[in-house]
Design a protein that fits this description.
Length: 286
């Protein structure tokens, strides 16, 4: 029950309402519980309550938010740098949705399986991801490692989040291009990106009625080599969400809110207001 309270604190709805109203029922509950535990005083900044709530999630069954935050911290702020990467959350590919996509010269799709998840959809997820990405990594808890090694092909990368919340590589992702689909990738290009793609391959549709242009372009692109389309697709994704923009926001926030800063669709004004609230005494939110 308490873990649910802490987990709720990090949801976008709670954060944005805390920013604009100064508090919520969840935020008050978190502060009161931490004060009762005597691990903080209500004169401490609200940011301290945020970090303490996150620490308790690290010691719990660890919801998906924890996996995303640890993964982001390692990949964007550790292994790589915000200056050289792009990071996309909840990226839809066909009927599947990758938990995150990292673009750093190459594009890698990440799928998180917490210890409470199963692998019943793993096969369909892999089919979707490999139609558009040549590298896929599953991020699993200690309790899922054996299962992952058994059911995932050996070219799928595997990261383990230990009980001490350290990410370690069990298996490196290997480039797998056999299942790339030019048509599947075409559907993921935005309008202006499609225009660049079509111009690059001399696919002209302006002479057609507007209702026919998309399908005509799709049919033409689907006949082109998937590896070539993949290069243009990765470049389009790289330009779409440079990590430097989100990093500028996250630097104003506790590290426990990195995944929120990169993943939630909140305006810059909302984040600036939240950052200001987090510097205030927690008593202001009671």
């Amino acid at each position: 029950m308490v873990n649910t309270l802490y987990s709720s604190f990090f949801r976008s709805k709670n954060l944005i309402e805390t920013a604009w109203h100064g508090t919520t029922e969840v935020t008050r509950g978190v502060i009161k519980h931490l004060v009762e535990e005597r691990v903080m005083n209500d004169t401490d900044p609200l940011a301290y309550a945020c970090d303490l709530a996150y620490e308790r999630l690290l010691l719990s069954s660890r919801p998906e938010y924890v996996y995303k935050n640890v993964l982001l911290s390692k990949m964007v702020f550790g292994t790589h740098s915000p200056a050289t990467t792009s990071w996309l959350y909840e990226f839809r590919v066909g009927e599947a949705r990758a938990d995150a996509v990292l673009i750093n010269g190459v594009a890698t799709a990440f799928e998180i399986k917490t210890d409470l998840d199963d692998f019943s959809r793993a096969q369909s997820q892999l089919e979707a991801y490999y139609s558009c990405f040549d590298r896929v990594v599953f991020v699993v808890g200690d309790g899922q490692v054996k299962k992952a090694l058994k059911v995932l092909p050996d070219y799928v990368g595997l990261l383990r989040l230990s009980t001490r919340c350290q990410l370690s590589e069990i298996r490196e992702a290997v480039s797998h291009t056999k299942d790339l689909s030019s048509e599947a990738m075409f559907h993921l290009f935005r309008k202006k990106e499609r225009e660049v793609l079509q111009s690059k391959y001399d696919v002209f549709t302006d002479h057609l009625p507007p209702i026919e242009r998309y399908s005509a372009a799709r049919d033409a692109i689907s006949l082109l080599p998937p590896k070539a389309i993949h290069e243009t697709f990765v470049e389009a994704l790289r330009k779409r969400e440079p990590a430097t923009k989100k990093a500028a926001i996250s630097h104003r926030l506790p590290n426990s809110l990195r995944a929120a800063a990169f993943g939630y669709k909140m305006r810059n004004a909302d984040w600036l207001l939240l950052a200001s609230r987090l510097r205030e005494p927690a008593s202001n939110a009671l």
